[in-house]
Amino acid sequence: MEGIINLPESLEVTKSILSFFYTSSYAEVSSFPMEHSAEVYFAADKYDIPGLMTLARSKLASLFRSLESQFADEDEPLTPGLVRCIGRFLEVVVLVYNNTRDTDSLRSEIVSTAREILRNIQDTTGDNRRWVKAFGMAPEFALDLVKPHSIKLQPDIPERSSTSWKWRTAKDCVVFECGECDTAVTMSKKSWENNGCAVGKSTWCPNYTQCRGKLEHRISNC
Q: Which of 4, 1, 35 has the alpha carbon at shortest distance from 12?
């Protein structure tokens, strides 16, 4: 039938898009407003409606802050209701990470809320499974969650100048990784040079029968 456009989005999301066109706003779905605003956000991105994206992001940020406030008391044990809230939040986490670019600021909002929840909850009995499932369905979320808190694993690796490694002593050793097959090799300065390599240049992977990669990536010092 001419004059009819069928949108793949749900009826609720479609209503929110139309409401925004007429009123510059939309009503949140009471049953699960967080998921609804996330879906609206994806649709706004898809149809290039920046104003609606901004509005949906603002609503989500407000919902995230409201969720965080429920975990403000560190001494308060998790209730079944709070466990359900975490589960629904993690469902939105997976939705967002599977429908946005890695540079999307909404991911930062989600990570901030997740950290606040994890910082305050004391009893995660029955809840770990939900987090593990979310990490499996959205691996980038797990990586973003630990990025700023990563332990510096290589504080004493010899620094690299433009031409060479700066070894402190002849006994220094460093673990190198093949850029192709991820084979890890521990080498001392002496063995590195005895391999026929100038210090600071790569050498062939020892798994040369199956891999023609080079040892170029430092992992950690010994």
A: 35
Instruction: Please list, residue by residue across 7-32, b when 16 or more beta carbons sit within 10 angstroms of its beta carbon and e when fewer do.
Output: eebeebbbebbeebeeeeebebbeee
CA-nearest of 45, 34, 17, 35 to 103 is 45
Count of Cβ atoms closer than 10 Å to residue 92 Cβ: 24
For the purposes of burial, counting CB atoms within 10 Å of the CB of 215, is it exposed (0-12), middle (13-18) or buried (19 or more)? buried
CB atoms within 10 A of CB 172: 19
- Cα 117 to its chain centre, rounded Å, is 16
pTM, to two decimals: 0.62
In which residue are the tokens 């990570």 written?
111
Please report where in the chains the tokens 């929840």 appear, as a residue.
117
Looking at residue 159, the DSSP 8-state letter turns out to be P
Rounded distance between C-alpha atoms, residue 116 and residue 207, angstroms:
45
Pick from 216, 218, 202: which is nearest to 157 by CA? Answer: 218
pLDDT tens digit sequence for 71-83: 776 566 677 888 8
**Which residues are CB-contacts of 173 (< 8 A; sequence separation ≥ 6)?**
186, 187, 188, 189, 221, 222
d(CA 29, CA 88): 14
> Distance between alpha carbon 20 and the CA centroid of its chain, in Å?
30
Calpha distance 197→150 (Å, rounded): 33
Q: pLDDT: is 3 or 38 the higher one?
A: 38
Residues 142 and 151 sit within 8 Å (Cβ to Cβ)? no
Structural contact between residues 86 and 34, judged by C-beta atoms closer than 8 angstroms: no
Average pLDDT, the chain: 75
